[in-house]
Design goal:
- The protein has 10 helices and no strands.
- By secondary structure, the protein is an all-alpha fold.
- The chain has one domain: Tetracycline Repressor, domain 2 (Orthogonal Bundle), CATH 1.10.357.10.
- It is elongated and about 60 Å long.
């Protein structure tokens, strides 16, 4: 790991590398010694930066949520037209999962239940903020739809997140379906199926 005097940047570097270790070995299977070796620090040095294994997992997840905010939410918030905002949310989230392949996001998907107590509550609060934004966008789209919605905005939001978050399990960038085709298919399927549009 390149050493830097910027503590935030250094923590992000630690999180990026540690996330790969958690991804490969699982939270329970990865030791702090494994992570220290991958990061290029002594075990004592790693504890100096992160405090504990639980705290490290929290920092990885928190960094993952920062990435989501920076690459998806911040770009969608300025879009006033609900359908276009929803399309951008879908495209941005898909891109985050299938192309950028941030290990921090994957750790969030895999290891959410490994985090306990107040740290888990903090991450869940950030997730809830994203879900509520998605839910309100879906509600706006449903309000302007020509036919009654098939399901509630909340159910639709969770269904959409489930569809997108599972992509890391099967989608291959070098496969037959391009990312753009994937975005178009998911957007069309969601608008027609879940929101009752024709």
């Amino acid at each position: 790991m390149a050493h830097t005097r910027d503590p935030k940047r250094q923590l992000r570097e630690i999180c990026s590398i540690a996330a790969r270790v958690f991804y490969d070995k699982g939270y329970d299977g990865a030791s702090m010694q494994d992570i220290a070796g991958a990061v290029g620090l002594t075990k004592a040095g790693l504890y100096h930066h992160v405090g504990s294994k639980d705290r490290l997992l929290f920092e990885i997840m928190n960094y993952g949520m920062d990435i989501l905010d920076e690459t998806v939410l911040s770009k969608a918030r300025g879009i006033s037209e609900p359908r276009e905002r929803l399309r951008r949310l879908i495209a941005g989230h898909i891109d985050l999962i299938v192309r950028t392949r941030n290990r921090e996001i994957t750790v969030i998907l895999h290891e959410n239940r490994s985090l306990k107590g107040p740290l888990r509550s903090k991450i869940n609060a950030r997730k809830l903020e994203y879900i509520r934004f998605l839910e309100s966008t879906i509600a706006e789209v449903q309000t302007s739809a020509s036919s009654p919605p098939a399901i509630t905005p909340r159910l639709a939001a969770f269904a959409l997140l489930g569809m997108i978050n599972w992509l890391y399990q099967w989608y291959k960038l070098d496969g037959k379906v391009t990312e753009e085709e994937l975005v178009q298919a998911y957007t069309r399927f969601f608008l027609r199926g879940f929101l009752g549009e024709t």
